[in-house]
Amino acid sequence: MSTDQNGTDAQEDTHINVADGIDHQVAMVMDLNKCIGCQTCTIACKTLWTEDGGSEYMYWNNVETKPGEGYPRGWEESGGGWQSEEHKERKTGEIPDQEDYGRAWEFNHSEIMYEGSDEPLRPRDGAEWGPNWDEDRGAGEYPNSYYFYLPRICNHCTHPSCVEACPRSALYKREEDGIVLVDQDRCRGYRYCVEGCPYKKVYYNTVSKKSEKCIFCYPRLEGEGPDGETYAPACAEECPPQLRLVGFADDEEGPIYKLIEEYEVALPLHPEFHTQPNVYYIPPYAPPQHTDDGETVDVDRIPRDYLRKLFGDRVDEALDTIERERQIVRQGGESELMEILQDKNPADQYRLEVFEDG
Amino acid sequence: MADRRQLRPVVVGIGLTALVVLAALSVPQAAARPAHEIPVEPATGDFSGPTADGWSDVPQSTVPLSSAPSSVPNANDTTIERVHVQAARGEEQLYLRLQWHDATRDTTTDGPRTFADSVAVQFPVNESARPPIAMGGPTNRVNVWYWSGGTGSEELLAGGAGSTTRMANSTITTNATYQGSGENATWTVQYTRDLDVAGENRTTIPEDEDIDVAFAVWNGSNDERAGQKAVSEWHYFPFSGGPQGPPYAALLWTIAGVAIVSVIAVTAYGIRRTGEGMS
Ligand code: SF4
Ligand code: SF4
């Protein structure tokens, strides 16, 4: 992994707004054009962190199909976040119902494995909703139907409304890297954080009676593993198409900073919640619509309105920039942006040690 | 005829006075104590549980509750309006019994949206000063005896809102029953604790001083938890042996009675004079 000696000097005049009292801010950029919906990230995270009792229904990382109702169902309308950029007044939120997360299904494993049943493998009963239940359904009419995958983790927001919602200050933002954590000793399971997070990325553990959430794999970042090496979060490292860049938003030499700040093509999800996420997305870029005869027409396949709803009004400019840079490459030119988006060198994708000695 | 009519108000007045005096004498003991005092009976008999026989001889105080001032969402939306409190003191133990109506029995916290019915009793850690009612203050802490239908009992320490800390090795035991149905359904929770327990932040139940006490109740089905709770003001257990029992109330009722009688007498006099003038 590369270490950039200029990293610390450069961040003096950074444009990235790092929260008060936070030295540096971890960040992730996900290129939605590369996600194949394989759920490897979901499973990597699930088996690493949420296999214990009470967390059966929890997915700190989930991948949902858009357009779709998401996980938990209807989270985009569940409230939470801030009224405005001033971060003075929070919006009221709701705790989702168990049914909206989906219940952990029981499968007929024992019948098939031990009792010789030749039934297909399937959930026993009560399988009426679950994470990504509306997989691949999308929207639109043939031949112009469309969908894309949206992987989601906690955004480790610059203005986390989950932190603000807790009357016991059990949630906090780590000083060294801005990771948002739940102090398990302070938490008394009141779940104000669950209703306060507009992304519904804090969960209540029904056995420990405490809230839990994505920890950005901080033990991996800190080299807590057996070999003492530093690793990016498991969802990023395990992703087959390697669509996640991990680093610090305020590392001006890194690709994340360039994508967010210079090219402005990496956008936060639902900026109108005003929590200022530190997970950013390269919006999906779909080919235009076709007529029934297969002729291309100049109409967006994924309606712009829908993308604006997800990523805010800046999505238009971001897609224009991507289109312009693509065109340059198509015509034999060079584009730093396209190079960043296609980089397969892990040393560039995961810049985790830049501020280590700073 | 005229004479009898003139006499009527006076007769009514005397009758009312008699009623007032009777009422004063028949006021039950519990309602007759100074405001905010919760009497403590000597614990003779069986106090082995929330429905044990001993409780039938212990007067019940009705403590009004209102929404706690708090910054949590829906802080004003609470549903329990009163809790009935009984206290009995044995040689070595204090027994408390709290009862309140709650139409739904909420005893689980095992769904993302389920909250359990709960109750808490709050004492100053240091009996000599009265802490702020909302979970005490940093230099004036409170010892809380908490029971929840979902997780049982806990002993807590707090020094201001948001500072609640669970104490290791709780010294309280609790026992609860839920009886009846609908509006009359009632939670009954008994607390038992040694009067004197070891540990720095634990309230010692004094022998010869009053001790402040306050109560809180949460209704789980209304999503009540944390600062969204119905709370009392500070009350006290009169261990100093100070004024107790009926004299105050009886006195007040007598004064009120005399006042009513005087009003009636004056009115009767006025009516008689008017009557005379007319005839
Ligand atoms: S996404 Fe939600 S849980 Fe994560 S930091 Fe932001 S407000 Fe908190
Ligand atoms: S592992 Fe990568 S490609 Fe697969 S669902 Fe997750 S983010 Fe998408």
UniProtKB/TrEMBL annotation, chain A:
<dbReference type="GO" id="GO:0009061">
    <property type="term" value="P:anaerobic respiration"/>
</dbReference>
<keyword id="KW-0004">4Fe-4S</keyword>
<dbReference type="GO" id="GO:0046872">
    <property type="term" value="F:metal ion binding"/>
</dbReference>
<keyword id="KW-0813">Transport</keyword>
<dbReference type="Pfam" id="PF13247">
    <property type="entry name" value="Fer4_11"/>
</dbReference>
<feature type="region of interest" description="Disordered">
    <location>
        <begin position="70"/>
        <end position="94"/>
    </location>
</feature>
<feature type="domain" description="4Fe-4S ferredoxin-type">
    <location>
        <begin position="145"/>
        <end position="176"/>
    </location>
</feature>
<keyword id="KW-0479">Metal-binding</keyword>
<protein>
    <submittedName>
        <fullName>Respiratory nitrate reductase subunit beta</fullName>
    </submittedName>
</protein>
<feature type="domain" description="4Fe-4S ferredoxin-type">
    <location>
        <begin position="26"/>
        <end position="54"/>
    </location>
</feature>
<dbReference type="GO" id="GO:0042597">
    <property type="term" value="C:periplasmic space"/>
</dbReference>
<dbReference type="InterPro" id="IPR017839">
    <property type="entry name" value="DMSO_Rdtase_II_Fe-S_su"/>
</dbReference>
<feature type="domain" description="4Fe-4S ferredoxin-type">
    <location>
        <begin position="178"/>
        <end position="207"/>
    </location>
</feature>
<dbReference type="InterPro" id="IPR017896">
    <property type="entry name" value="4Fe4S_Fe-S-bd"/>
</dbReference>
<dbReference type="GO" id="GO:0009055">
    <property type="term" value="F:electron transfer activity"/>
</dbReference>
<feature type="compositionally biased region" description="Basic and acidic residues">
    <location>
        <begin position="84"/>
        <end position="94"/>
    </location>
</feature>
<keyword id="KW-0677">Repeat</keyword>
<dbReference type="GO" id="GO:0016020">
    <property type="term" value="C:membrane"/>
</dbReference>
<dbReference type="GO" id="GO:0051539">
    <property type="term" value="F:4 iron, 4 sulfur cluster binding"/>
</dbReference>
<keyword id="KW-0249">Electron transport</keyword>
<keyword id="KW-0408">Iron</keyword>
<keyword id="KW-0411">Iron-sulfur</keyword>
TrEMBL record, chain B:
<feature type="domain" description="Cytochrome c-552/DMSO reductase-like haem-binding">
    <location>
        <begin position="52"/>
        <end position="230"/>
    </location>
</feature>
<feature type="transmembrane region" description="Helical">
    <location>
        <begin position="248"/>
        <end position="271"/>
    </location>
</feature>
<keyword id="KW-0812">Transmembrane</keyword>
<dbReference type="InterPro" id="IPR019020">
    <property type="entry name" value="Cyt-c552/DMSO_Rdtase_haem-bd"/>
</dbReference>
<keyword id="KW-0472">Membrane</keyword>
<dbReference type="GO" id="GO:0046872">
    <property type="term" value="F:metal ion binding"/>
</dbReference>
<dbReference type="GO" id="GO:0020037">
    <property type="term" value="F:heme binding"/>
</dbReference>
<keyword id="KW-0249">Electron transport</keyword>
<protein>
    <submittedName>
        <fullName>DMSO reductase</fullName>
    </submittedName>
</protein>
<keyword id="KW-0349">Heme</keyword>
<dbReference type="InterPro" id="IPR017838">
    <property type="entry name" value="DMSO_Rdtase_II_haem_b-bd_su"/>
</dbReference>
<dbReference type="Pfam" id="PF09459">
    <property type="entry name" value="EB_dh"/>
</dbReference>
<feature type="compositionally biased region" description="Polar residues">
    <location>
        <begin position="58"/>
        <end position="77"/>
    </location>
</feature>
<keyword id="KW-1133">Transmembrane helix</keyword>
<feature type="region of interest" description="Disordered">
    <location>
        <begin position="33"/>
        <end position="77"/>
    </location>
</feature>
<keyword id="KW-0408">Iron</keyword>
<keyword id="KW-0813">Transport</keyword>
<dbReference type="GO" id="GO:0042597">
    <property type="term" value="C:periplasmic space"/>
</dbReference>
<keyword id="KW-0479">Metal-binding</keyword>
